[in-house]
Design a protein that fits this description.
Layout: H1 2-21, H2 23-28, H3 30-53, H4 57-60, H5 70-79, H6 84-88, H7 102-130, H8 139-142, H9 148-162, H10 166-191
Bound molecules: protoporphyrin IX containing FE (HEM).
Length: about 200
């Protein structure tokens, strides 16, 4: 199954990104939390713009619009003190791998959709440490709320059905790996740390 293959192939990448973000650093101060949200905004803005240019979503049964995260990030950032103009001026991540067709898009989307799973844990930590809740400063990490499981399952079923031959499987995996590397580099840059990518 393609989804378990992606999980295994990118496990070290996930560990690196998770270590870099660090649940502690992400939730220990409001400043750290807002910095992380600004960075996630730049990441998702770049990805969403690319997904919107890709043709053929209908054929795989995925609607990228319903999975957009920038509206949630925008709401959180405004709640935490940024103006809409400041949010709009945040830099978009320039380093995503090419997202030009369904295999490259699905690989990148695997990485971004998968982060909604970790988001469930982060949401709890943010509530405990910073007192923010879904709908009040922590909409992004809460993402689909109680639909996180079903949304992930639907995404996985679509990827499994799509990646039926070796060429497709390899292209999806390459894109997922490169996307994780870009995510690591993007957060490394913010932290002023060298990228492991
Ligand atoms: C402090 C930061 C993070 C923590 C604590 C974290 C934690 C987790 C946890 C606990 C899971 C498994 C959840 C489950 O199976 O129910 C998970 C899955 C995943 N996370 Fe993260 N995560 C973090 C950051 C990220 C980031 C930044 C990305 C990518 C942008 C990411 C991408 C993924 C992916 C793709 C999966 C799905 C793996 C799979 O089952 O195929 N994570 N994360």
């Amino acid at each position: 199954m393609m989804m378990s293959r992606l999980k295994e192939a990118t496990r070290p990448r996930h560990e690196a990104v998770e270590a870099r973000l660090g649940l502690l650093r992400l939730t220990s101060t409001m400043e750290g939390y807002v910095l992380a949200l600004r960075r996630f905004y730049g990441l998702h803005r770049a990805a969403e713009a690319a997904f919107a240019r890709v043709a053929g979503w209908d054929a795989v049964g995925i609607d990228p619009d319903e999975r957009r995260k920038t509206p949630l990030l925008e709401a959180d950032l405004i709640r935490l003190g940024l103006t809409p103009a400041e949010v709009a001026a945040l830099p978009a991540c320039p380093a995503l791998p090419p997202i030009v067709d369904l295999p490259t898009a699905l690989g990148a989307m695997y990485v971004l959709e998968g982060s909604t799973l970790g988001g469930r844990y982060i949401t709890k930590a943010v509530r405990a440490k910073l007192g923010l809740t879904p709908g009040d400063g922590c909409s992004y990490f809460a993402s689909y709320g109680d639909r996180v499981g079903p949304m992930w399952k639907a995404f996985g079923a679509a990827v499994d059905a799509f990646a039926a031959d070796d060429a497709a499987r390899e292209a999806v995996e390459r894109s997922a790996d490169a996307t994780f590397a870009a995510v690591d580099g993007w957060f490394a840059e913010e932290a002023g740390e060298p990228s492991r990518a």
